Q: What sequence folds into this?
């Protein structure tokens, strides 16, 4: 089963160590890698192929939640900017990548898409989501999102 489809199903059931919050328009999980601390993925409430497959009300709620996750990252991390991406090139299921960007990143990296970071950042286990290391930030994000999404 596609990883995004599986994550969407788990998050909609309120399951997963990396689940941050269930919002009105989607469910937020921490990304599989955390070399940029706070990297999140917004999943729709139900398995959906593309943004355009959501009805207008669902689409507005999803995109609003995407921006609110960005607010949470700005508030809870030292990020100076947020990158939002909905690509759909490798998974046939809707999901939005929400990347905090940091001033401490090398200048060449700050000017390029996150996807151009070396493969080691995506594949080495030391960068993978780890509850022992990442739960403090995850809990900050959860608390912020609960407060602002009421």
A:
């Amino acid at each position: 089963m596609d990883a995004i489809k599986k994550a969407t199903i788990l998050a909609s059931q309120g399951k997963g160590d990396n689940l941050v919050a269930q919002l009105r328009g989607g469910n937020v999980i921490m990304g599989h890698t955390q070399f940029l601390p706070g990297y999140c993925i917004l999943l729709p409430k139900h398995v959906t192929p593309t943004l355009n497959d959501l009805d207008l009300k669902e689409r507005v709620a999803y995109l609003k939640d995407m921006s609110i996750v960005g607010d949470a990252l700005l508030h809870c991390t030292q990020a100076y900017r947020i990158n939002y991406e909905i690509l759909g090139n490798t998974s046939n299921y809707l999901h939005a990548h929400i990347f905090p960007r940091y001033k401490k990143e090398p200048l060449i990296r700050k000017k390029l898409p996150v996807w151009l970071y070396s493969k080691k950042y995506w594949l080495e286990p030391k960068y993978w989501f780890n509850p022992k290391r990442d739960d403090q930030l995850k809990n900050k994000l959860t608390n912020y999102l609960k407060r602002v999404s009421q």
Q: What stands out?
A: Strands lie at 19-22, 26-30, 40-44, 81-85, 96-101. The chain is about 40% helix and 15% strand. The chain has a mean pLDDT of 96. The domain at 3-138 is CATH 3.30.428.10 (HIT family, subunit A).
